């Protein structure tokens, strides 16, 4: 038996600038035909074909590098702190370095604020003493009710005077680290005024009720 060569296919002429399609020969009988090769589209002349981008994987436990900040955005990290000027600088012996001592921020005195609250409360309660003392002088109960409020006003006035004096002393000993000397003085004055008003109102209420 003689083997005959299969006829060669005749392809039409291809215009200039185009790629000629690949020729596929028929496979002999009894053999499995291989799949045709895939042909990617050719890039235009003068341009490089695109390179496929595959996702980048990182090993376990390794963090990917952070992307640089965009233009106009602050970089991540600790922000600088503006410290106040040091009060004094102590030179460390034997070294060219020094220890800067920063001043503590000033705070308001709580004792002075308490003195002002007690003093204002004493003045307000002393006004109530006068109101009840004058309103109940004709019925005879003015002295009793005014006396109850007078005790409260006197206690608040004494507390305002004492706390005001303690606040002034505390601020003086703090050497400028505490503020509120004016508040302490105002509390001391209000406490003294409330104490005097309450005492005079009580005496007046008793005298009017008895008369």
Radius of gyration: 50 Å
The number of helical elements comes to 3
Overall pLDDT metric: 77
Number of strands: 4
Q: State the order of secondary-structure elements, H for helix, E for strand.
A: EEEHHEH
Task: Describe the protein.
- The protein has 211 residues and is mainly alpha-helical.
- It has a domain at 126-210.
- It is built from 3 helices and 4 strands.
- The chain has helices spanning 110-135, 142-173, 181-210; strands at 86-91, 98-102, 107-108, 178-179.
- The strands form 2 sheets. It has a two-stranded antiparallel sheet.
- β1 (86-91) and β2 (98-102) form a beta hairpin.
- The longest helix is centred in the C-terminal third of the chain and has 32 residues, at 142-173.
- The protein is elongated and about 155 Å long.
- The protein starts with 85 loop residues before the first strand and ends with a helix.
What is the secondary structure topology, with strand pairs?
Blueprint: E1 86-91, E2 98-102, E3 107-108, H1 110-135, H2 142-173, E4 178-179, H3 181-210
Parallel strand pairs: 3-4
Antiparallel strand pairs: 1-2
Helix pairs in contact: 1-2, 1-3, 2-3
């Amino acid at each position: 038996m003689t083997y005959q060569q299969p006829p060669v296919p005749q392809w039409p002429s291809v215009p200039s600038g185009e790629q000629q399609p690949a020729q596929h020969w028929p496979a002999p009988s009894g053999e499995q035909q291989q799949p045709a090769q895939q042909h990617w589209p050719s890039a235009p002349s003068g341009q490089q074909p695109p390179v496929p981008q595959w996702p980048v994987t990182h090993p376990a436990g390794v963090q990917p590098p952070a992307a640089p900040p965009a233009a106009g955005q602050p970089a991540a990290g600790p922000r600088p702190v503006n410290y106040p000027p040091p009060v004094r600088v102590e030179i460390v012996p034997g070294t060219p370095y020094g220890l800067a001592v920063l001043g503590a921020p000033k705070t308001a005195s709580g004792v002075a604020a308490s003195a002002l609250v007690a003093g204002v409360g004493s003045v307000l309660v002393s006004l109530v003493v006068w109101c009840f003392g004058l309103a109940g002088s004709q019925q005879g109960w003015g002295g009793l009710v005014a006396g109850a409020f007078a005790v409260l006003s006197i206690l608040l006035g004494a507390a305002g005077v004492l706390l005001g004096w303690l606040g002034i002393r505390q601020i003086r000993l703090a050497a400028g680290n505490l503020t509120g000397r004016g508040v302490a003085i105002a509390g001391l004055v209000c406490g003294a005024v409330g104490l005097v008003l309450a005492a005079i109102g009580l005496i007046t209420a008793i005298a009017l009720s008895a008369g």
